[in-house]
Amino acid sequence: MDDPISQASVSAKKKPLDIVVKLALMVLFGSFGLIWGGMYLSRPDRSIPPYSIGSQEGTAVSVHVPAWTSDTEIETLIERFRKVGQETGNFGPMKIRPTTPEDTRRRYRRITIYIFAHDAWAEAEMLHKYLVGEDREVRDGFRRALRGFYQLTESEEEGRIGPLVDGPDSAATAAYSRQLFKEAVTTKP
Length: 189
Known about the structure:
Elements: H1 4-12, H2 19-41, E1 52-57, E2 60-64, H3 71-87, E3 111-116, H4 124-132, H5 136-145, E4 146-152, E5 156-161, E6 178-184
């Protein structure tokens, strides 16, 4: 006869997992581990605000940042451009194509970066119109729409917050535009 106590003890004993089930669980958790590890290793740099390259023409590059980006965050981005310019001189990891490709040793010898919060100003057509300089209205609007500016030449480096103003900085322009740095650079070998 069937003893209820012996049936309960048999059903209480757990059967080991099948090898196929174990393998499937290992694959499942291993996949999640690989995905998490890959996401962790390829995460964006959170020390600078998100940005995208709007357009590039010659040594001029227009960059778009979200409209809610603060001046402090733009200053951090400009400081990152400065750090790259001083340390490696390679803006490639920042998604900028070489500005002086004919120079195989220093492919970013000269670069001017214009930072905008409104993406229309970062488009190729607007950058071209500004560089050509035929339309004074576009030129003035381009300079007023700037949120930040970084320029590296063979002899000088400059960074600014706010629009480009004609003439020297004054108390009147300090509220919306200021120079972060402007200094001579040492030439790298």
